[in-house]
Amino acid sequence: MRDRGDGLTTGFGKPVDDDQNSMTAGERGPVLMQDVHLLEKLGHFDRERIPERVVHAKGAGAHGYFEVTADVTQYTRAAFLSEVGKKTEVFVRFSTVGGEKGSADAERDPRGFAIKFYTEEGNYDMTGNNTPVFFIRDPLKFADFIHTQKRNPRTNLKDPDMFWDFLSLTPESVHQVMVLFSDRGTPATYRNMNGYSSHTYVWYNAAGEQFYVQYHFKTEQGIKNFTAAEADAMKASDPDHATRDLFEAIERGEYPSWRLEMQIMPVAEAAEYRFDVFDITKVWPHADYPPTTVGRLVLDRNPDNYFAETEQAAFNPSNFVPGIGPSNDKMLQARLFSYHDTHLHRLGPNYHLLPINAPKNAPMNSYQRDGAMRFDDNGAGGPNYWPNSMGGPAPDPSSADPGMQVEGLTGRTPYPHPNDDFVQPRALFRDVMTDEDRDHLISNIVGHLKNAHERIRMRQCAVFYKVDPDLGTSVAEGVHVDSAEVERLARLSDEKRAEATAR
Ligand code: NDP
Question: Is 194 a catalytic site residue?
Answer without folding.
Answer: no
